[in-house]
Amino acid sequence: MRLGNDLYEVTVTEIPDSTFASEHTQGFDDIFLPETVSVDHPLKALAIEATGRDSTWKVCPIGDCLCFIHDYAYLEGDQLIVLQNDTISQIDIRTHQLAVHQKLECFGCCLGMYPCPGGYIVYGEMEIFRIDERFDTVWRVSGADKFVSPDIFPPFKIEDGVIKVYDWDNNYYEFNFDWHCLDERRSE
Question: Given pLDDT bands bounded at 50, 70 and 90, which one contains residue 46?
């Protein structure tokens, strides 16, 4: 995944088969293994390289193995926001600090994070929720079934300020960012 703005070019990649003690995590300027991450279960490490005008910084955040490689990181100014399953991190590229690391309350796996006015929409396997810029939950909703589809890809997207999602039974829903239903179609 490549992200960029006027300040930084950022590349985020997954380190395959990584563990906390892995040789794959060598060569980084910093490694972030927050206290909320348990080394007793499988982990996933990300390789983040942030290049600014005068320097390059390589950091390796380690988190839950159930994080996904698409739609999980956003660059806002000098802040990189990263979703690793049920945890969200705010990495300050300028100061090289893990500014915030917070566990999210969610049911099932978190599959993606999408910016919206005043925060983010988090798309999960079993629920969708909105968090504000401080990562506090604004609203959350669960569907009749899983918000994933075996037949339709992608089962979740945001277009023109509208959340469009299919559930496991291929029922289709459209919602605004305040979770007001705009359209609902049941599959036959």
Answer: confident
Give the pLDDT band of residue 6 (cuts 50, 70, 90). Answer: very high
The pTM of the whole model exceeds 0.70 = yes
C-alpha dihedral sign at 11, 90, 14, 121: negative
Structure token pair of residue 54 = 């005068």
DSSP for the chain, written as a single string? -EEE-SS-EEEEEEETT--TT-GGGTT-SEEE--TTS-TTS-EEEEEEEEE-SS-EEEEEEEEETT--SSS-EEEETTEEEEEETTEEEEEETTTTEEEEEEEPP-SS-EEEEEEETTEEEEEESSEEEEEETT--EEEEEE-SS-S--SSSSSSEEEETTEEEEE-TT--EEEE-TT--EEEEE---
User: Average model confidence (pLDDT) for the chain?
Assistant: 85
**Euclidean distance between CA atoms 45 and 90, whole angstroms:** 16
Residue 71 in tokens: 């739609």
